[in-house]
Amino acid sequence: MTFDLAPFVERRRRFAEAIGDALAIIPGAREVARNGDTNFEFRQDSDFYFLTGFDEPDAVAVINPAHAKERFVLFVRPRDREMETWNGRRAGVEGAIATYGADAAYTVDELDAKLHEHAVDRPALVYRLGNPHHDGRVTRLLAEMRTVRTRGFVTPTRVDDPGPILHDLRLRRRPEELARQRRACEISRDAHREAMRFARPGRHEYEVQAALEFAFRQGGSPRNAYPSIVASGPNACILHYTENTRRMEDGDLLLIDAGCEWGYHASDITRTFPVNGRFTP
């Protein structure tokens, strides 16, 4: 999928208008270890992606509408030849500017120092509390800026949740966003049709799941929107059944609740049909 910068520029413009002269700190998602040297599959935080389009872990966006030059700053992992050999390419600070439109970019280890600079003359922070990795950083920033305030500068005295602003922006879809949403739905529709075609007595639920999710990937979806529910017979009475291990029998109904994600837009489709393909009159 080709990266289109324009929608993210427009989203940041609308977000900046809403926060005025406050300073927004929007963290991205972090990688989570599964075991050994393996992490769980990474998915970016939806609010962070909505504003930046940046799909790497451990990044932080700082939006400072009143700043003379650095209104949109990305803090990212540095380029690292060895780590990129193991885990894939990184944008680095150069790519954060060239590809993702940041006014400035720094490595993430510079975040604390730069936040001190950006917080001067800002009356409020816009940050969602509840992030175990960043809450301490924000509370320390507020405490340390009190000293700056005694020297006559304006510094943040409150923390506002960005959620109401961002979620209202995300709720009101623009044409290009609706097109991505429809594409996610189209891929999921085609996958459900393939699952209906593939299902038959004697096959297992996980085989139908495999056919369904193959169609997701074939359509260009990188991931499921949520774990696929492929529930035959009595399993359909379990609302969030995900074992998907039962061998289907003639006369069973099969409930499939599954959807894919495309361009960070999710679909959600549920259908129930007879495994043998014959409905009763």
Structure report:
The chain has 281 residues and is an alpha+beta fold. Helices cover 38% and strands 18% of the residues. α5 (111-119) crosses α6 (135-149) and α8 (175-198) runs antiparallel to α9 (205-218). A six-stranded mixed β-sheet has the order 6-5-4-1-7-8, with helices on both faces. β2 and β3 form a beta hairpin. The model has no long low-confidence stretch (mean pLDDT 96). The longest helix has 24 residues, at 175-198. It folds into two domains: 6-171, Creatinase/prolidase N-terminal domain (Creatine Amidinohydrolase, Chain A, domain 1), CATH 3.40.350; 175-274, Creatine Amidinohydrolase. The protein starts with 5 loop residues before the first helix and ends in a 7-residue tail after the last strand.
- C-alpha termini separation: 45 Å
Fourth-level CATH superfamily of the largest domain: Creatinase/prolidase N-terminal domain
Largest sheet, in brief, is: 6 strands, mixed
Strand proportion, as a percent range, falls in 15-25%
Helix content: 25-40%
Second-tier CATH architecture of the largest domain: 3-Layer(aba) Sandwich
Structural class: alpha+beta
- CATH fold naming of the largest domain: Creatine Amidinohydrolase, Chain A, domain 1
Figure out the total of helices: 9
Mean of the pLDDT scores?
Answer: 96
CATH class division of the largest domain: Alpha Beta
Q: Which sequence of SSEs, written as H and E, runs from N to C?
A: HEEEHEEHHEHEHEHHHEEEEEE
The structural domain count equals 2
Shape: elongated
User: Number of DSSP strands?
Assistant: 14
Spatial strand order of the main sheet: 6-5-4-1-7-8
Radius of gyration: 23 Å
Low-confidence stretches: none
